[in-house]
Amino acid sequence: MVRLHKPFLEPLGLTFPQYLVILELLDGAPLPVGALGTRLDMDTGTITPLIKRLEAAGLVTRTRDPADERRVMVDLTPRGRALEAKVRGVNDKIKSACQLTDKGLNELRRTLEALAHPAAE
């Protein structure tokens, strides 16, 4: 799946994991780093460097939560929000490249999620 996304993400200057972070933030920013990691099934050691690279690129900001200084909130910058149409359009390009319908894409997503999280034995 990563390889399939690469030609669509390179023009945006995003890696596949960065793309996933941006998608999550588009659906509900700002988010605490921990919640973002949980949603993407990434630990703090994985998500933090991703966020730092996105921040260096000017796509996100990191700020302390005024209600709880221990939490770091991640939000999109105006530049990050400006990518919304292009980022969301990647999904349609993948569907087209794979000749998938919405139903087929949902089935593929469920299959991949099942492979990523096998049932406990």
Strand order within the widest beta sheet: 1-3-2
Rg (CA only): 15 Å
Strand content: 5-15%
CATH top-level class: Mainly Alpha
In DSSP terms (H or I, runs of 4 or more residues), the helix count works out at 7
Mean pLDDT: 88
Query: Which word captures the global form?
Result: globular
Span between termini: 27 Å
Global structural class: alpha+beta
Largest sheet: 3 strands, antiparallel
CATH topology call: Arc Repressor Mutant, subunit A
Q: Number of domains in the coordinates?
A: 1
In terms of per-residue confidence, which ranges show pLDDT below 50 for 5 or more consecutive residues? none
Characterization of the model:
- The chain is an alpha+beta fold and 121 residues long.
- The chain has a single domain, classed as Arc Repressor Mutant, subunit A (Orthogonal Bundle), CATH 1.10.10.10.
- Helix content is 61%, strand content 14%.
- It has seven helices and three strands.
- The protein has helices at residues 2-9, 16-26, 33-40, 44-56, 78-81, 84-98, 102-116; strands at 31-32, 60-65, 68-76.
- A three-stranded antiparallel sheet has the order 1-3-2.
- Helix 1 (2-9) crosses helix 6 and helix 3 (33-40) crosses helix 4.
- The chain is globular, with a radius of gyration of 15 Å.
- The chain starts with a helix and ends in a 5-residue tail after the last helix.
- The model has no long low-confidence stretch (mean pLDDT 88).
Brief summary of the model shown:
The chain is α+β, with helices and mostly antiparallel strands and 121 residues long.
